Inverse folding.
């Protein structure tokens, strides 16, 4: 269930990607009416308090994914209302992007005269990103450069590979191994349906609104290797591929968001957790084998008996001679039904856990949708601020009115200030449209989770009914064992009811066959895949999950952070568009 939570959390990360251009734009266009004062001599490092640090790294990339410029935006959260805040940073060209608080800089140490406020600053970095992006373009089976691709037509494949450069040492099964700091990378783009057709994407989703196709894909670079999972049994994506038929190629570029903090929540603490996981999986696998064997024997025996019912009707007098053998078989059947009941009870418990887990995931859906709505509201506030900074007096933007308001504003600005000024307003509307599309996709995802939760509950209810039926079968087998002792005395009565018995055996045979086939399918598609994916080493998998979780928790900042300070970091990639030369 933790893996499903990871997927659900990661989808929300892409929503942040839509605001990255706006965030940088706002920083680059900060008002200069009140210039930042000279560094004050009154800022003393001894008086400074460490602040919680939230960092966003914007990687402005070429069309091939190579980094062209890295801009880092840091938010120092002054949770204690301190007068002076300390920080560690390797950035150059540092600028306060929201206020005019003073700072001093000595090597990697930076001290802010915060006066009880949060600090928002940005700077430039030349350090290598822990996650690197490479975009390859292939037209009609041959690799082609972005510059050569503009204006071309044919069968296009765009492949995005992510390289994880950050490893840490961990102890796994008593030996030191390197595992990568885990990152979940969500990649998004928008394609013009007039130019792109028959669009497909690996490890992602395609959303078509008629005019445009929105693509969102998920990748976990190097996670497959860190968890040592057999990719033939469970493939964890580390890249994405988009294929399409294209006419007069032009491309708006990619947005991508890489996050590592979501992996810090998957740690399994304590020896009991590991033992419980190993024992539960072993017991479930053994019970499934036992239940499959028992149902297979039941089906084979009933099939044979069903074929003999005609002879039974004609030769009922011979039944008394075999009554002793039937009695022995009834004893064996009674013993077998005990194992069958035990196996079904374990199956019911497992399906109950699945139902409860999906229900728990469904509980998070509302919070996830609310988070997306909050992000959209934040983007609307940013747009309000940008428009106000341009001197436009407009109604407050909402999800219902922003399109109408911005279209009207663009027309108004074009008449007053020209097309370039109007284009900036149009660009804001395009960003809002894209994020709204992602919000709609997220709503569709959470609705799917709700449906899956309801289905899982139905599965559990079915196992409860199956368990009740097995209990009745067990009681019947016990009664059959007792009754076979006096079977000979009831031969005449049995002859009178032999026709009805034949019909019942036929129905029971069909039911036993369906049960056997269903159990085989369940074992092949569920239990066995779980066991096989870890190559039987569930203890090792738990250790690797814990190592990956610890690695995620240890990585808190890209540009530097004070020891013991709480921090988080995410990476936003934006690649250049590909357009034809005018």
């Amino acid at each position: 269930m933790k893996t499903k939570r990871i997927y659900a959390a990661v989808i929300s990360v892409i929503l942040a990607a839509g605001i990255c251009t706006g965030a940088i734009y706002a920083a680059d266009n900060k008002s200069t009416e009140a210039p930042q004062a000279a560094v004050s001599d009154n800022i003393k490092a001894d008086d400074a308090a460490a602040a919680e640090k939230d960092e966003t790294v914007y990687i402005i990339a070429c069309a091939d994914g190579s980094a062209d410029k890295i801009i880092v935006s840091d938010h120092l959260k002054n949770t204690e209302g301190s007068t002076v805040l300390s920080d560690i940073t390797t950035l150059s060209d540092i600028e306060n992007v929201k206020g005019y608080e003073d700072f001093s800089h000595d090597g990697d140490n930076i001290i802010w005269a915060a006066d009880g406020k949060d600090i928002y600053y940005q700077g430039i970095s030349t350090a290598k990103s822990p996650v690197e992006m490479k975009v390859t373009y292939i037209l009609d089976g041959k690799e082609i450069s972005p510059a050569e691709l503009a204006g071309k037509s044919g069968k296009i494949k765009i492949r995005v590979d992510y390289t994880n450069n950050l490893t840490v040492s961990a102890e796994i099964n008593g030996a030191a191994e390197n595992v990568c700091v885990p990152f979940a990378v969500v990649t998004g783009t928008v394609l013009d349906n007039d130019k792109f057709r028959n669009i497909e994407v690996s490890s992602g989703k395609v959303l078509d609104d008629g005019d445009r196709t929105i693509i969102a894909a998920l990748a976990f670079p190097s996670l497959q290797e860190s968890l040592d999972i057999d990719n033939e049994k469970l493939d964890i994506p580390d890249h994405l591929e988009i294929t399409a038929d294209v006419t007069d190629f032009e491309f708006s570029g990619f947005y991508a968001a890489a996050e590592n903090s979501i992996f810090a929540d998957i740690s399994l603490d304590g020896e009991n957790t590991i033992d419980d996981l190993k024992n539960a999986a072993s017991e479930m696998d053994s019970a499934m084998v036992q239940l499959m064997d028992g149902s297979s024997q039941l089906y084979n025996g009933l099939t044979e008996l069903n074929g003999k019912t005609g002879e039974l009707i004609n030769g009922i007098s011979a039944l008394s001679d075999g009554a002793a053998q039937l009695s022995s078989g009834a004893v064996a059947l009674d013993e077998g039904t005990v194992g069958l009941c035990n196996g079904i009870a374990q199956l019911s418990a497992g399906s109950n856990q699945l139902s409860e887990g999906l229900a728990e995931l469904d509980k998070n859906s509302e919070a996830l949708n609310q988070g997306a709505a909050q992000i959209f509201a934040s983007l609307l506030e940013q747009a309000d601020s940008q428009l106000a900074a341009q001197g436009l007096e407009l109604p407050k933007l909402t999800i219902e009115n922003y399109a109408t308001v911005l279209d009207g504003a663009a027309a108004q600005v074009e008449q007053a200030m020209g097309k370039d000024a109007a284009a900036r307003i149009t660009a804001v509307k395009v960003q809002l449209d894209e994020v709204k599309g992602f919000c709609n996709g997220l709503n569709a995802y959470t609705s799917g989770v709700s449906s899956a939760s309801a289905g899982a509950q139905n599965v559990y209810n079915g196992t409860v009914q199956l368990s009740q039926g097995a209990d009745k079968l067990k009681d019947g087998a016990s009664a059959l064992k007792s009754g076979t002792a006096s079977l000979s005395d009831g031969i005449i009565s049995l002859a009178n009811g032999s026709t009805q018995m034949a019909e019942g055996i036929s129905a029971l045979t069909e039911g036993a066959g369906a049960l056997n086939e269903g159990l085989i399918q369940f074992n092949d598609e569920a239990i066995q895949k779980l066991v096989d994916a870890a190559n039987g080493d569930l203890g090792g998998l738990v250790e690797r999950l814990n190592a990956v979780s610890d690695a995620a928790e240890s990585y808190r900042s890209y540009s530097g952070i004070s020891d013991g300070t709480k921090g988080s970091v995410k990476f936003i990639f934006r690649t250049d568009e590909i357009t034809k030369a005018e």
